[in-house]
Specification:
The protein is α+β, with helices and mostly antiparallel strands. The chain is about 55% helix and about 15% strand. The protein has a three-stranded antiparallel beta sheet. It has a three-stranded mixed beta sheet with strand order 2-6-3, with no helix packed on it. The longest helix has about 60 residues, at about 40-100.
């Protein structure tokens, strides 16, 4: 009896194989499922291929435009972060220098009195000046400079004929910049006509 049950299954499997491998009858919806592009009408194949190529070209152009936009955004981001990093660096250097201003004032006073002519302290002061100059430190406020309220703080007016009017006639305290940022304005006396 077991042989009888196996026979129909084997016959059923053979008939299923034949059914799937045989072409579908015309008029049935399944008839077009197995048809490839080669079996389609010759005119339809060319139109479909051109439509596919056009769609592929449009998609490629769109992807290329997206890629260019992303590349431009990344370049802008990279430039912006580099600029922000440089600004932060300058700001931190300015803060460090602002905390050292009393030391600079003492060094300037020692120079004025001739105490920095020779010796180890003169060498240390020179190294400090060189190091901070490399970091962008600029000292300003010299006698004869034109008075600029952006960088000079006028403490007094001094009638003198040695310096032109509205120019610095005496420096009471030097000013300092780090690159373009003014860390401290210079305290000066401004010359006026006698």
């Amino acid at each position: 009896m077991s042989e009888n049950t196996n026979e129909p299954q084997g016959q059923e499997a053979d008939s299923l194989e034949e059914a799937f491998s045989a072409p579908a009858a015309d008029g049935h919806p399944e008839a077009t499922e197995g048809v490839t592009d080669e079996a389609a009408a010759p005119g339809e194949t060319g139109v479909a291929a051109e439509a596919g190529e056009t769609a592929d070209a449009a998609l490629a152009a769109e992807r290329l435009e997206d890629l260019r936009r992303l590349q431009a955004e990344f370049t802008n981001y990279k430039n912006r972060t580099a600029k922000e990093k440089e600004q932060l660096r300058n700001f931190v250097i300015g803060d460090v220098i602002a905390s050292l201003l009393p030391v600079f004032d003492d060094i300037d006073a020692a120079r004025t009195h001739g105490d920095l002519e020779d010796g180890p302290f003169a060498a240390i002061a020179k190294k400090l000046d060189e190091t901070l100059t490399k970091q962008g430190l600029i000292r300003f406020g010299e006698v004869g400079d034109a008075f600029d309220p952006q960088v000079h703080e006028a403490v007094l007016q001094q009638p003198t004929g040695e310096v032109e009017p509205d120019h610095v006639s005496m420096v009471l305290r030097y000013g300092y910049k780090v690159n373009d940022r003014v860390v401290r304005t210079a305290q000066v006396a401004v010359a006026v006509a006698e």
